[in-house]
Amino acid sequence: MWSSRLPTISILYQMTEESGTYQLIDFGNGRKLESLAGYVIDRPSPAADFDQPEDRRLWNDVDARFDGATKRWEFRRPWPKSLVIDCDGFIMPTRPTPFGHIGLFPEQADNWQWLRGQPKSYSDVASHEPHPKGLNLFGYTGASSMAMLSAGFEVAHVDAAKPNVDAAAKAAELNNWQDRPIRYLVDDAAKFVAREVRRERHYHTVVLDPPAYGHSPKQSRGSTKTWRLERDLWPLLDNVLRILDPSSDVSPRILFTGHTESIGPDEVIGFLKQSRLIDTSGLRIDASRSQLRTASGRELDAGFQVRCVFER
Fold first, then answer.
1. Collapsing DSSP states into helix, strand and coil, what is residue 48?
2. pTM
């Protein structure tokens, strides 16, 4: 269940077309109005079901609108091919997807900065080997991977959908990071981590943004394994704890983000605290809710995050 007692992290982007930034303009009636570097979109947002728009006039002049019933985008103005968002340390391309997404989740901005907090910058560690290792599971189009890559990590980006993995590679290319150490893996997250346990490979930072439901990539005979969050998360978390680097000079970390009501932060925190797979005596947990904020101060809920540091 969701926890109502968590502090919130409110994200406000100041919109300027020149810098390529994001802004939440308004929300209500189950939808949100957003600007992507001046390109205005209107799309569904279940978190806004019980709110009313602040200024209905703002909704009259949009460039693109996603219809949740037909699963189609309607364009008044074509989506700019080179539309990228400045994520403060790296840039991310945008694209309209058949699911109403845009290629990144702006509410994760504070988490990207947290991921970049260790090491300090790529230049600080670029000449040192080995690089700290970061693993991004259910990595989508790679914003968290880019955040870690910008901070000097050697990154493994894992997602079951090849278009998402290809998009992560494109993001690295747009940042001119083709020569930085990153692996792009079309794979089932749980199976990949289980193999890493057997290989005795370890990571300093592991990022998880699991969906409530999903499919693994097709196998040779065309079969797929179904992912269900309530059933499959706990054995995956067990294995994630097994691959945290026990010898790192820097404290290992886990970032878990969630967007459904089936499993909330209290369940994740309770599971991690009771684990016997790793020394939890120095476990420091920071759990909070994410919110996107309009320029007028209205806040739209955007899920939760649990940040764990296993201090040495």
1. helix
2. 0.89
Give the residue carrying structure tokens 């969630």: 258
What's the whole-number mean pLDDT along residues 262-285? 89
CB 65 within 8 A of CB 52: no
The closest of 131, 226, 132, 222 to 188, measured between CA atoms, is 226
Domain residue spans in the chain? 104-310
Cα dihedral 74/92/245/263 (nearest 10)? -30
As a whole number of angstroms, the distance between CA 69 and CA 248 comes to: 49
Can you name the CATH fold of 104-310? Answer: Rossmann fold (3.40.50)
Instruction: Give residue 224's pLDDT band: very low, low, confident or very high (50, 70, 90).
Output: low
3-state secondary structure 195-261: HHHHHCCCECEEEECCCCEEECCCCCCCCCCEEEHHHHHHHHHHHHHHHECCCCCCCCEEEEEECCC
CA-wise closest residue to 277 among 229, 236, 307, 306: 236
Q: How far is CA 55 from CA 26, 166, 263, 295, in A?
A: 7, 38, 34, 12
205 touches 218 (CB < 8 A): no
Of the candidates 70, 73, 138, 62, the one whose C-alpha atom is nearest the C-alpha of residue 105 is: 138
d(CA 107, CA 142) in angstroms, rounded, equals 14
214: which 2 tokens?
Answer: 């999903």
> Percentage of the chain surpassing pLDDT 70?
88
Strands 283-293 and 91-93: unpaired
Q: Report d(CA 9, CA 292) in Å as an integer.
A: 8
